């Protein structure tokens, strides 16, 4: 039971780090800000959702499935940016809506979704290794 609690703490710490980095990138005002604000932040967006999914489903079997599903879903959300019904526009007008759904379609985002999903998978692998190392020591 204690292992599970420590494992969840690792996930929460990871989520806090990734969220902070994502906001730093999203609102970075310095040189190269266009890349950091859009593309760089998309990498952390993917990692965040991988970690979020891992919070609920944390077994060895889902280490690959979570990043794949995160990639597929965020690609669908990217394509939804081409669709502008009033309800989606109202959601996108809010800060949370803009952060979660985005506002502008870009083919380049798919590259950063791939990078973020791969980094998310690596992060999940490392968390799994750390969690199991602690488990075997107790």
Mean pLDDT: 92
Shape: globular
How much strand content do the residues show? under 5%
**C-alpha Rg (nearest Å):** 16 Å
Molecular structure report:
- The structure is a single chain.
- The protein has 138 residues and is an all-alpha fold.
- Helix content is 81%, strand content 0%.
- The longest helix has 30 residues, at 108-137.
- The chain is globular.
Task: Note the main attributes of this structure.
138 residues, mainly alpha, 6 helices, 0% strand, globular
Structure described in brief:
This protein is mainly alpha-helical. The chain is built from six helices and no strands.
Walk me through the topology:
Blueprint: H1 2-26, H2 33-56, H3 62-80, H4 86-92, H5 95-101, H6 108-137
